[in-house]
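Researcher: Let's try something more involved. This one mixes different molecule types, so please make sure each is placed in the same coordinate frame as the others.
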Amino acid sequence: MFALTVNGTRQQVDVAPDTPLLWVLRDNLGITSVKYSCGIAECGMCTVLIDGTARRSCVVPIEEVDGSAITTIEGLPDDHPVKIAWIEKQVPQCGYCQPGIMLQTVDFLSRVPHPSETEINNAMDDVICRCGSHPRIRKAIRMAAKITASQGG
Amino acid sequence: MDKAMTRRSFLKTGSLVIAAATVANSTELFNASQVYGSAEMPFKPHAFLEIRADDTVVVWVGQTNLGQGTHTGLAMVIADELDASWGNVQVKMALAADPFKDPVWHAQLTGGSTSFRHRWDLLRSVGAAARQMLLEAAAQQWGLNAGECKASEGKIIHPDGRSLRYGQLVETAGKRAVPVNPQLKNPAAHTIIGTQKARLDIPDKVQGKTVYGFDFTLPGMCVAVVARPPRYGAVPEAYNADAAMAVKGVIKVIPLEERIAVCAENTYAAMRGRNALDLKWSEGSHPNLSDEMIAAVFTDSLKKKGADAGKKGGVDQALATASQTLQQEYSLPYLSHGQVEPINCTAHVEKDRCRIWIPTQMQTATQMTASSLTGLPIENVEVMTLPAGGGFGLRGEQDPVVDSVLLSQALDRPVKVIWTREDDFIHGYFRPANRSRVQAGLDEHGQIICWDHTIAAPSVMSRVMPHAVVDGIDPDAVSGVSDMVYTFANHAVHYVMVNLPVTVGWWRSVGFSSNIFAVESFMDELAHAAGKDPVLFRLAHMEKGSRSYDVLALLAEKGGWNTPVPAGRARGVAVSACFESFAAHMAEVSVGENGNVKVHRVVCALDCGTAIYPDAIKAQAEAGVVMGLSAAFHEQVSFAKGGVKTANYDDYPVLTMSDVPEVEVFIAKNDFKAGGVGEPVLPSVAPAVANAIFKASGIRLRELPFRKDLLKQG
Ligand code: FES
Ligand code: FES
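Model: All components are placed in one shared frame. Result:
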C-alpha cells in the first residue's frame, strides 16, 4: 500500500513498488490529464508536480514518492495565471502536450519569476510539442509571469 | 413525415446533395459520455445544425479535432450565415454518418486540408437556410413578409424594433420547408467569418478535461497491447503466454495471425504482460533491409528512366540550345508522424452492433473495416470520433480498428487497443523517402527554357488508392513537380516507383512536402547561376497576377526582402501551391563556424482564399514552420536488420524551444473560396532555410535532414 495526496485528496493504492507514478495516476486513480507519450522521460507529457517540483511521472516509481503531494493540472485553480495565459494566448493545438508543459511552467516560474527569453527557451527545451505551439507557449509564459507579478505572487 | 420531406428537398439540389435524409437521429445513436449528450432538438434543418429553445446553437461536426481549430472554424461559417449570437454557439462531434462525408471524396475523413475547401458552399448554405426559415417564421407570426424583417445576433428583428429570439422561433421554424437555394451573404456582410474568436475546445484542453482516445474508458473495458512483428514479414516463432498471464492484471493472451495480443485490466499490466511474452520472431522477409541497403535501392532507382508523368515541349532539344545547363540531385529520408498521442482504438462488438471510439481521420474506412470483420451492416457500426493528440495523416490507418474489433469479439467485452511509443515508431506508415534529379537549361537572358525532373520514391497511393495509380504513376509522388507554380516551355517529369517493404502513408502536405524541397532548392540554384535575385527570378517564371505570384510578392514586401539583412545573417525564400492555397516562406539564418545554423526569423505569406478563422490559420502557419524546420534539421527514420530501428523520441529528435525562431505570418486578404491551410503552410519551409544557408555560407545542402558536417568543412 502506498499513500499519495493527489490535488489535496488522500489516496491509497495497492500496486507493485516499481509501478511508475504515471500509471498509478492514470490506471488506478483515473487521472487521465497526465499523459503518456514516450515512457522514457523524453517528452514531458506526463509531468506532474511532486511536492511542488515538476517531474516526469513515467519514470518515477511509486515507492519513491510514497507520502508525497502530487499536483496535476486539475489541481491548479481554474484561474491560475498559467491557465489564464494559456487560454488568452490560444496556445493548445491538439492540447495533448499542454498539461505537462503548463505544470513544468508552474515549477519554472516559481524558481524564475521574471524569466528572460533565453531562460524560457532553456527551461522549455526538453519538452515536445509536435503540433508546434512553441511561439505561443513562449508568449503565454511571459504573460503568466506578468500576471503572477501583478498579483504580488 | 413533413420534416423528412422538407429535408429531402433541401438536400436534393446542388452541393447539398451529399447529405442523406436519414440523419434525424444519427447523431444521437448513443451517448458515449455526457459530453456528447443532447437535449430535445426542436429545430434541426440539417445534420450540421440544431437550434434549441434555450437559444443554444449546436453545430454538429464530422471533422476530427486534431488541434487544427477546424471545429471552431466550421461553427464560425455556419453561425455567420445564420446570424447567430456567437456566445450561444457550441460545437459537438457527431457520430460518423453520411451527411458528414466529404462532398467531393464521398467518404468521411479529415485530410487533404479539405474541411472547408470541399464544404465552402455547403456550410454556408446550412446557416443561410436556417436563417431564412427563422425569418419566415417570425414574419408569419407578425403578419409581415420575410423581407421586411432582419436577422441579427440570434434574433429576428421587426421593422418597429421588436424582436424574437431564435429560441422562441424554433418550433414554428421547424415546421417550415427547408429552402432549396438559400441566399448566401455577400462576403462584405460577414460578421463572424474573418474575425478573432477564442477556440471553443481550448478551455477544456487547458483544464485537462479533454478525453482523448488514449484516455477513453468504458465500464468492463480491458486494455490490450499487441506485440507486432519487429521486422517486415516476421512471424512469432515462440512466446511464453504463461509468463504474461502471471503478470497481475493480465486477462488473456490472444494470438491474431502474426501478432500476439495481451489483454489486461489496465494499461500498465498489458504493457508489462507483453514484455513478459519473451517473443522470438522469425527473421522476416527482408533481413538485409538497412539504411545502407535502402540508400542503394534509391541510387539504382534514380538511374532508371521511369514512367512519363508529364511532358510539354521538347526538353532534349531545348537543353541542346541552352546557354547554360545545370543538374542536381536531392534526397529526403523516411519520416515518422511523431504525433504525441500514440495510436489507439476502443471497440465494443455486440450481437447487433459494433461501437467504436477512436481518434481517427477516416471514419468511413473505420466503419467499413469493422463491418467487414463483424459481418454487421455499416449502419450498425457506430463510430465516435474522439479528440486526437495530433494526426498529421497517420490516423486513417486501420490496424488498431482491426485489433480492437477482433479482441472485443474474442473477449465479449469492450477492448481498448493502445500502441506504445515504440509501436508507433516501429509500425509507422512513414512519409516516403524521396530522391530526385533535376536538370534545367537557361537561355542567354537567364530564363529557364526547360526543366527535366526524375523522382524516385515509394508510392502511397498504390496501397491506399490503387485505382488512382495509372501507368505506373502515383500522382501524389509527383505532386508539386507535375503541377508547378512556374511555367516552362519545355517540361518533363519522370517517376520511378521504389518498391521496398517499408510501409508508407500520408504525412502532412504529402508529396508536396518532399518534392517542393527539390523544386525550390533548384530554383535557387538556377537563380544563382543566372545571377538573378531569387525573388525576381521566381516571379519572372510565374504568370503575373497569379495567386502564387502575388503571395511571393506579398512575402517579399511584408518580410522586407529588399531591406538590409542584419549583420551575419542571410535570407532565403521558397514558394509553393497546394490544396487550393498558396504559400511562401522567407528564412533568416546565420551559420556559425562550427556549422551550427541558427534560424532567427521565418516569415510566412499565405493566400488561403477567404481567411475564415485568422488566428487558427496563424497558429497552423506557425506550426508549419516548426514542423518544417524539424524535418529540415532533425528527422529521419532509421532501418536495420530487416525492420525499423528508430524506436522512440530519443532516436528521433524533433525541434524544441530554443531552435524555434520568431515566426511572422501574413495572410492575403481576398474573398476567394476557402482553400486548405494545415498542409500548404509546410512545403516551402525547408527549402527557404536551405536557400538562406547557401546565401550565408556558400554551401548548398541538398539532403534532409541537413548535415552539419558539410557546413563545417566549408
Ligand atoms: S511520457 Fe513521460 S516524459 Fe514522455
Ligand atoms: S499541442 Fe499538440 S503536441 Fe503540443
